[in-house]
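DM between two lab members

TW: hey, do you still have the Response regulator entry open?
JB: yeah, one sec
JB: this one, 164 aa:
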Amino acid sequence: MADPVNFILIIQPMSRQGTIWQSILRSQGISVIWEHPDVNLAESFKHLKSARVPLPDLLLIDTRVQTLNAYSLCRWCRDHYPEVQIVLVNGAQKTISPSEREWALCQGAADLLPRLQRDRLVSGAVVRIRRILELLDRHTLDSGALVNALMGASREDRRKMMDL
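TW: and the structure you got?
JB:
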């Protein structure tokens, strides 16, 4: 039986990281919308609810988005839309300390992940997509599709990926 299609909304200010995230998520059959960092999530969710359109299963938000406070958003979502999980990505850091992750979890995030790195792109993508799939209660990683997504990018996209 095929896994259900999940929907993830990405809020990512950096095109290189966003492109990679979009590719690895779609490689697993996940529907992705990459939203502009200025999006008003409260209004967007209100419109989706009134139109009886499903909310995203998960928000993937870079903590560097300057137009919103990611931790305030976690608290707001926990209070108003607890069914929507939030994964924060600190696109400026290669590692996340246990205390940083604990703070994010206390604020309502499902996890806090570090940026994807050029020298560990495939292994980093595998670790991160496994975590996302776990949060979506999906247990099968299509590693072939993941590698194809990373390697099948156009020459320009590959160059951008290498400039992480």
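TW: got it. Strands lie at 7-11, 31-35, 58-62, 85-90, 111-114. Residues 152 and 162 are 14 Å apart (CA to CA).
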